[in-house]
Amino acid sequence: MNAFSKLVAIECRGTGVTVQNLQPGFVNTDILKVGNFIRRLGGYLVPTPQRYVRHAVDTIGVANNTTGYWVHGLKVRQSTSHI
Fold first, then answer.
1. In terms of pTM, does the model score above 0.70?
2. Where exactly are the structural domains of the chain?
3. How far is CA 12 from the centre of its chain?
4. What is the spatial distance between Cα 71 and Cα 83, in angstroms, rounded to a whole number?
5. By three-state DSSP, how is residue 65 classified?
6. What are phi and psi of 22, to 5 degrees?
């Protein structure tokens, strides 16, 4: 998706359209009922939808490629740091 987003951004250059690749982590929604362990983490690790959206919207126009939530960004950096 990152490569596709970059291509769309190039295609839309100069049109006023902002293209952003958003790669979310877990968000505390009803679908997580199947994974009670993840849902119980809650708080900052697994934000509510409202908290996640608030943070993700703040990244519009700031980052082209983002997780939308700072804790998810830490997890992505941690998992890719050994590569």
1. no
2. 24-83
3. 22
4. 20
5. strand
6. -110, 120
